[in-house]
Design brief:
Oligomer: heterodimer
Distance between the termini of chain A: 40 Å
Order of helices and strands of chain B: EEEEEEEEEEE
Largest interface: A-B, 25 and 29 residues
Order of helices and strands of chain A: EEEEEEEEEEE
Chain lengths: 111, 116
């Protein structure tokens, strides 16, 4: 059974601080790694799709890195703002079709 | 440019009734995916469809659940003879081509199904 693990499960960060969290996955049969931001009562919003070992992607204050050989990806948020409060999901593309999601990291930014 | 549209947003059914959940993909998208989030759990894949074809239904319960994506109209997830354990949020996503080629899946707002 394919297992995608995210840590930590939840995180409280002071406004203005930077933070990061981890997504771990089996390194075999890798197709792509997706990151989503999911705010309460909204739909998951696609942040990044990464396919190549060593990939780094950036969107504003949010960036992500990928290591397919060791099976992990990091998501970084620089200078956290209250609007960054959300659950961050990573998902592994399996067979170029369905996504296998981790349980998410719930991020709360304290003003 | 409208996103993925799901309706209804909330659906209440009594045990034994049928539930029909609809999903209209983003314009130009021909691939539809259904995911389910049970209480206190993460998103789990159910089924992947292209127009008039079920490509992968490995995540669908074997009984009572069916999905279709007709040539015209929205994709439908149908649950017959609902039970309390079917209470969940059901999300639809679409993509112009499969996610493994670097395309994200775009999600709708979900349908919250409650079984009385």
């Amino acid at each position: 059974i394919l297992n995608v693990e995210q840590s930590p499960q939840s995180l409280h960060v002071q406004e203005g601080d930077s933070t990061n969290f981890t997504c771990s996955f089996p390194s075999s049969n890798f197709y792509a790694l997706h990151w989503y931001r999911w705010e309460t009562a909204k739909s998951p919003e696609a942040l990044f799709v990464m396919t190549l070992n060593g990939d780094e992607k950036k969107k504003g204050r949010i960036s992500a890195t990928l290591n397919t050989k060791e099976g992990y990806s990091y998501l970084y948020i620089k200078g956290s703002q209250p609007e960054d409060s959300a659950t961050y999901l990573c998902a592994l593309s399996q067979g170029a079709q369905k996504l296998v999601f981790g349980q998410g990291t719930r991020l709360a930014i304290n003003p | 440019n409208a996103g993925v549209m799901q309706n209804p947003r909330h659906l209440v059914r009594r045990r034994g009734q049928e539930a029909r959940l609809r999903c209209s993909p983003m314009k130009g998208h021909s691939h539809v995916y259904w995911y389910r989030q049970l209480p206190e759990e993460g998103l789990k894949f159910m089924v992947y469809l292209q127009k008039e074809n079920i490509i992968d239904e490995s995540g669908m319960p074997k009984e009572r659940f069916s999905a279709e994506f007709p040539k015209e109209g929205p994709s439908i997830l149908r649950i017959q003879q609902v039970v309390r354990g079917d209470s969940a949020a059901y999300f639809c996503a679409s993509s112009p081509q499969t996610g493994g080629s670097g395309q994200p899946q775009h999600f709708g707002d979900g349908t919250r199904l409650s079984i009385l």
